């Protein structure tokens, strides 16, 4: 009888182990495939390169929203819970500064220019997503935020890159809609009204292929409120109103000089004019990447870390052109 009990208990334990292994496999096998899809595109001497990743696992933005987001850090925590469930991973929310603008060529082609500026040097990763309940898209994320500037060094760094769909700093979808995240200097507003919370500490520059600007009437923005542009002086902080007026002025000057025919070269000229060299005393200095999104053709051309003559182009399917 005792031997039968031992066998019975052993059988239950083995069964539980098998169930747990099957559950873990069902959760992580597509995530593993995602991590294995990471590809290095460039080989720069400074060690900060361009990578790409194919997101193969299913994820839910609604689940992230339902997590109960109160600030940037709780947003990051929700991302970890969705993309790397049950793993002891922690990512700290960064602060950064950027520039973004829209330009239209005489033939109707619409583009968005985007500089991502941050004090810490970083590798960049192109993220291709094709979710079942969303639009196909490409976006870019800063690997330094994941402590994974060289993701090929370890499986831990590769796994960190699985969070990429949720931490892209700019991107473009199959409908020709592009977006860029920009930091504001004002304090966040916290309200509890029993509704879904959306962070108010970030500004968004959003374009579509028809160039219909629904949120703001201005065609360029940096790190200040466009509605209070008259209260923002260049080359200084302006309290809650923001900073980066000098970059805005540089962009507008280039666009105005181009008139009604703002070509791809116009966009590159504006990006270069508003780019920033490293400044250890300014967290929003140091342009890490510059991108020309073509909202009409659904492509993105990127130059990282002010290497203006070394441009990589991706189509909406995440393939290099």
What's the average pLDDT? 85
Distance between the termini: 70 Å
Backbone structural class: alpha+beta
Shape: elongated
Instruction: Assign a percent range to the helix content.
Output: 25-40%
Q: Spell out the helices and strands N to C.
A: HEEHHEEEEHEEEEEEHHEEE
- How many beta-strand elements? 15
Summarize it.
The protein has 321 residues and is of the alpha+beta class. It is built from six helices and 15 strands. The strands form three sheets. It has a seven-stranded mixed sheet with strand order 1-2-5-6-7-8-9.
List keywords for this structure.
26% helix; 6-stranded antiparallel β-sheet; 321 residues; 23% strand; alpha+beta; 6 helices; elongated
Q: Helices and strands in order, then pairings?
A:
Layout: H1 2-36, E1 39-40, E2 50-54, H2 61-66, H3 72-83, E3 97-104, E4 110-117, E5 124-129, E6 137-142, H4 155-160, E7 170-173, E8 178-183, E9 202-207, E10 220-221, E11 223-224, E12 242-243, H5 245-258, H6 264-274, E13 287-294, E14 299-304, E15 312-315
Parallel strand pairs: 2-5
Antiparallel strand pairs: 1-2, 3-4, 3-10, 4-13, 5-6, 6-7, 7-8, 8-9, 11-12, 13-14, 14-15
